[in-house]
Amino acid sequence: MLAMLSTRPLVRRCAGASVLALALLGAGLPAAAADRPQPDLTRFYQQRPAWAGCPGPDMPKDLECAKVTVPLDYARPDAGTLDLALARYRATGPSHGSVVLNFGGPGGAGIPELAAEGRQFMDLTDGYDVVAFDPRGVGRSSPVSCGEGGVAVPAVPRQDPAPGQPQALLRQLRQVAEECARNSGPVLPHIGTVNASRDLDVIRQALGDKKLNYLGFSYGSRLGAVYAAQFPDQVGRLALDGVDTLTESPAEQGLAGAEGQQQALDDFLDWCTTDVGCPFGQDRRRAGDEVLRLVRSLDRDPVPTDFGASFTGQDLVGALAQGLYSKRTWPPLERALASLVEDGDTRRLLGFATGGIGLPPARYGTDRTGPSHDRDRTGASAAHHREDGGLVDAADVPADNLPAALLAINCADDPDRPDAARLTEEMRTLRAAYDHASPVFGRYRLTQLLLCYGRPKGTDFIRERVKDVHTAKMLLVGTRGDPATPYRWTVETARRLGPSAVVLDNKGEGHTGYSSSMCVHHTVNDFLLYGTLPPGGGSCPANAPAADGPEDAG
């Protein structure tokens, strides 16, 4: 969701083993590169993970951990390596191999998510080992960071200091890019979905699977689609839930996100104002004004937090963005907002994840003020790099890794880089478009859009090459009321991928459907376990029972 401008572009948007390895790499390279002699990746495709109990007091006893080594640079595999952290629950029934999960983000670490919410996927252990991993640059796998200040850039001002000349903002954006580069180590130039997909194929082979069986949520759908384009012959059963766009520019994505989040906020306020405990009162029209007033007040006068940092209006918007992903998080979000409004207490709102777009926070709990969040939010550990590319201890993952990785991956996936003159010329138009999309979320999403400024141009592989794939059937789940990945993206991506892609129409609400709809849950599981699909993909009703119990998960 980061950086594409101009009027229409702005708002449009052994020997045998060696042969195998070379063929697999060639499938994932642009045509010109594939014609050149390819580096030998044999040693990476001959690994077998050494599984053992996962370290850490909060890790389930039946969860196993391991690592897989991949090249830092696939074009120069002798120039360095890094280790990727893996975790799995063993199959309880006759095993057909593994199913690999990605929970979204980008920048979301897979291992803590699987450890916290593995019960969501226990049905899949009837036929598979259920595997998650921390992608390169994320979690324990060479995590990127932007330093002690985190991804700290001031929000886009509502008015230019000098009309048409936001030079101060551009200098700050470049400083952010330089700080992130200094603190992220050698993985940063090699981060992104194209390389993560190549890593995924090394993981597939290390798990002993001839084909990749995969369940990807939100951003995880982008990773799955890129894999299908790079390695079509290795595609087994791929299910993608909350489907990302492959074609829209980052500016278009940001506008769609702002519109979806504004609608989700409106729905939340419709619900909240029927409750006497709503911190914005019972007058629905006034409640919307009160939210905007609170955001602007905090932007002018931030309040201190227990972590030594300040809580701004844009921090509030980030918390709202996460808390609105699902109706399941509305009750705890209401309580968190009441704590802020009535007592100036930010702790509950800080409990909502910020920065990434993945599964709803209810999947792993809404009270995140426990031990892992007790350290200074700005205190990224100096020990988050290992010179040998080995796994980082969980306690040493930088506090800002999620937003830093989200930014790095989105920028690496984005080929558009407007220069300072173009940004200056179009800033006013940008601001107007985003404010129109959402008076609450527009400024926040516009800041995200601009954060690729000062970074190297990303790949055009996703826009140019991820289409017309010839694979086994893939199941794409689109939710009609999804505030983060609009249903139309599912339809457009399915059309772009070709006849292999089948759409399940989930008529419910919330971001992704697997945990919010029993119908979606069973349909996805039946596809992954048995290969069965409803005619034409099928549909699930709006009022389908939740797959994870009652709505109030708080």
Descriptive overview:
With about 550 residues, the protein is of the alpha/beta class. The protein has a domain at about 40-250 and about 355-430 and about 460-554: Rossmann fold (3-Layer(aba) Sandwich), CATH 3.40.50.1820. It has 18 helices and 14 strands. About 55% of the residues are buried.
Provide the low-confidence segments as ranges.
Answer: 1-27, 354-383, 549-554
Compute the average pLDDT.
85
For CATH, the homologous superfamily of the domain at 38-248 and 355-428 and 460-554 is named as Alpha/Beta hydrolase fold, catalytic domain
Estimated helix fraction: 25-40%
- Architecture of the domain at 38-248 and 355-428 and 460-554 in CATH? 3-Layer(aba) Sandwich
Structural class by sheet pairing and helices: alpha/beta
Keywords:
single chain; 554 residues; alpha/beta; Rossmann fold; 10-stranded mixed sheet; two-stranded antiparallel ribbon; 38% helix; globular; disordered N terminus
Brief digest:
With about 550 residues, the protein is α/β, with parallel strands linked by helices.
Task: Summarize the SSE layout with pairings.
Blueprint: H1 7-10, H2 15-27, H3 31-34, E1 52-53, E2 63-71, E3 81-89, E4 98-102, E5 104-105, H4 110-117, E6 129-133, H5 167-184, H6 193-206, E7 212-217, H7 219-230, E8 235-241, H8 250-272, H9 284-300, E9 303-304, E10 310-311, H10 313-323, H11 330-343, H12 347-350, E11 357-358, H13 401-412, H14 420-437, H15 442-450, H16 461-465, E12 474-481, H17 487-497, E13 501-509, H18 518-530, E14 539-540
Parallel strand pairs: 4-6, 4-7, 7-8, 8-12, 12-13, 13-14
Antiparallel strand pairs: 1-2, 2-3, 3-6, 5-11, 9-10
